[in-house]
Amino acid sequence: MKKDPLGEVYLSAEQIQDRVKELGKMISATYQGKELLLLGILKGSFVFMADLVRNIEIPHSLDFMAISSYEGVEGSPEAVKILKDLDESITGKHVVIVEDIIDTGLTLGYLIRHLEARNPGSINICTLLDRSIRRIVPLPISFTGFDIPDVFVVGYGMDYRQLYRNLPALHLCDITV
Ligand code: IMP
Ligand code: MG
Questions:
Q1: Looking at the predicted structure, is the pLDDT value of residue 40 above 60?
Q2: Which pTM does this prediction carry?
Q3: Using a 6 Å cutoff on CB, does residue 130 contact ligand 1?
């Protein structure tokens, strides 16, 4: 019989919710009086995005993009493809990219260069998880939920082979089974 890859809880639903509230407050304070656009990167960020926007107290719009994950030759920007582009212009807007987890930063590094060409007012990143020890491309991460070591996690929107996105907590996952 195949072993279940799902492991123990790494961050509880309550720990996540408490931190998301704080991130919402920080974003509200930082972008007061500015034209704010939250840009979720599909699919992993959809749960975090839904909770985050309900904790932001200032007017803002939101949009989503889907990009292929970085599976090509290391360092080659052609390896990232835009599968779903923005619906509206970001020119002059203050963009906060919402991510589930940032690892090497290769995918987001490419995306930011691409978005900068569209002349936004500013671009920052809000990520629930930052596996900063694996970073290759330096990124402007202004809002971080939790810094995590080199463990693979699922739940709260994050998947292993498209499963477990529905779990309200974050769990460790053994991707060798
Ligand atoms: P990178 O920063 O370009 O290396 O890629 C980060 C992306 O890989 C994230 O947005 C996730 O979609 C995926 N990813 C990285 N680590 C994990 C994990 O522990 N669980 C689930 N997805 C992950
Ligand atoms: Mg992602």
A1: yes
A2: 0.94
A3: no
